[in-house]
Design a protein that fits this description.
By secondary structure, the protein is mainly alpha-helical. It has helices at 3-40, 44-72, 74-93, 98-126, 129-160, 168-172, 174-188, 206-225, 229-255, 270-300, 305-333, 336-354, 369-392, 399-427, 435-461. The protein is built from 15 helices and no strands. The chain folds into three domains: 1-189, MFS general substrate transporter like domains (Growth Hormone, Chain: A, Up-down Bundle), CATH 1.20.1250; 206-260, no CATH class; 264-484, Growth Hormone, Chain: A (Up-down Bundle), CATH 1.20.1250. The protein is globular and about 65 Å long. The two termini are 33 Å apart.
Length: 484
């Protein structure tokens, strides 16, 4: 192996370490919410803020951080973001109150966006041809596996209780991983060429940054902070109006030949717009499902975190198998695979809702692993082929914007899904709930999530068909399988 090729693979390793750390952190923390709530005396609504604050900060900052990498250099921003992710993870671990933990999660989300926004571009620059295809396959597979197994890993860390750290170990484990990623990044990620247009001190779009960040924030925050959904409507309407203003501003700048954060024109492509809608619905459903099931089993029924981690195993296996089979099924049935996967998720969630009372039996009813496997299989059948469908009609000059918009939409969907599902779940619980109350609330949420996937199925059925265009890895959006 030549020195150059060895360096490129170590560059990939740095990116894989970063994405693994980030994906595990996102999903592992949901298992620890009941433990965090007991330790920090946090209410159910406050617990929901722990994953939501991170996702919201991540989503709002992702587009800005991608531009930051272009201005100051991707290696510099990657290393700095990774270092800050480690520091903020330690702050999360030792937060003495729930308020400070939520604040630390916001800072961690900003650091995670700075780190994650650079990885796809770094891998693209490090490889070409078939080696780039292989690199992206490894990247997507690693990210997907890390996210899907995150709850099981979180449960294992809680069970091991290393050095008596309890739930804090879920955050502390990030520090050594980050140090390894930093060492590899500093040594093997090449600096940008002076002629590449990256790291040349290009100009920001502060108005666009402000409009996007405020709009995204106003959509999610009121859902969590308001006493009812009706009370949240005015603020959400303001958020939507702000995003409409962001769209007009970006179009105006583009017409004037100025730099834009994103190419809004990609939304004119039907497959991209519909695909983004499906993606947001699916990611929001996934995060809401994991969150509420964790609370029901641990807080409501008194099960251990290990049990919660164990039930995610069949889910993860179903998703992984379906993701592996997705390329073949997509070539045969095209975008119909996406609609079928969404329908499978919806039907399986409905079955879980009907059988919710069985969760209160002695010992977990392991036959329920069947609908759990099908929920995961449906997720895997949606995510992998959805990427090819989304980018197929996007013009080459707009693929960079598409690659930034889609993960942002996914994270906003995850944040909204977590916030909305959590708000409904805890609003249905009485002031002094018993096990039956948790089961009733969980059943209602599962039926709601099933209805959401029914909507996703209808939208997915309208996706363009006959899209058998092979998108090269440098023109594709990496599938992670779960929310970042």
């Amino acid at each position: 192996m030549t020195h150059r090729r060895r360096g490129s693979w170590l560059t990939l390793c740095a990116c894989l370490l970063a994405v693994t750390m980030q994906m595990i952190d996102v999903t592992a923390v949901t298992v620890a919410l009941p433990s965090i709530g007991r330790d920090l005396d946090a209410s159910g609504a406050q617990q929901v803020w722990i994953p939501t604050a991170y996702l919201l900060a991540f989503a709002c900052a992702l587009l800005t951080m991608a531009r930051t990498g272009e201005v100051f250099g991707r290696r510099t921003v990657f290393v700095t973001g990774t270092a800050l992710f480690a520091v903020t993870s330690v702050l999360c671990a030792y937060a003495p109150t729930i308020e400070l933990l939520v604040l630390a999660r916001v800072l961690q989300g900003l650091a995670g966006a700075a780190m994650s926004a650079q990885t796809v571009a770094i891998v693209t620059a490090a490889y070409s041809g078939t080696r780039r295809t292989t690199a992206f396959a490894l990247y997507g597979g690693t990210a997907g596996l890390a996210g899907l197994t995150g709850p099981a890993i979180g449960a294992l860390l809680l069970h091991l209780d290393m050095l008596g750290t309890g739930w804090r170990g879920i955050f502390l484990i990030n520090a050594p991983i980050a140090l390894a990623a930093i060492a590899l990044g500093r040594r093997f990620v090449p600096p940008e060429s002076k002629h590449s247009g990256v790291g040349s001190g290009g100009r920001f779009d502060p108005v666009g940054v402000g409009l996007w960040s405020i709009g995204a924030l106003m959509i999610v925050y009121p859902v969590m902070a308001s006493s009812s959904f009706v009370a949240a409507v005015p603020a959400v309407a303001i958020g939507l109006a702000t995003l409409a203003g962001f769209t007009m501003w970006e179009r105006r700048r583009r017409a004037a030949g100025a730099h834009v954060m994103v190419d809004i024109g990609v939304f004119g492509e039907r497959g991209f717009s519909l695909g983004c809608a499906v993606s947001a619905l699916v990611y929001g459903t996934f995060t809401g499902f994991v969150l509420t099931m964790s609370v029901t089993l641990q807080t409501g029924l008194g099960d251990s975190a290990t049990t919660v981690g164990a039930i995610t195993v069949p889910f993860a296996l179903g998703a992984i198998v379906a993701s592996v089979a997705a390329p073949v099924s997509f070539r045969r049935w095209d975008s119909r695979v996406v609609a079928a996967g969404a329908a499978a998720m919806g039907i399986s969630l409905f079955v879980l809702g009907v059988t919710t009372d069985f969760l209160d039996r002695v010992g977990f009813p392991w036959w329920m692993a069947i609908p759990l496997v099908l929920v995961g299989a449906g997720l895997g059948s949606v995510i992998a082929p959805l990427q090819s469908t989304i980018v197929a009609g996007v013009e080459p000059h707009a693929l960079g914007s598409a690659s930034g918009i889609l993960p942002t939409v996914q994270q906003v969907g995850s944040a909204v899904g977590t916030a909305t599902t959590g708000a409904v779940y805890f609003a249905l619980l009485p002031s002094d709930p018993v096990a039956a109350d948790y089961l009733t609330s969980q059943r209602t949420v599962l039926f709601g999530l099933a209805a959401t996937m029914a909507v996703a199925t209808v939208v997915a059925a309208a996706l363009p068909r006959g899209v058998h265009r092979d998108v090269d890895a440098d023109q594709s959006i990496v599938s992670t399988g779960v929310p970042q």
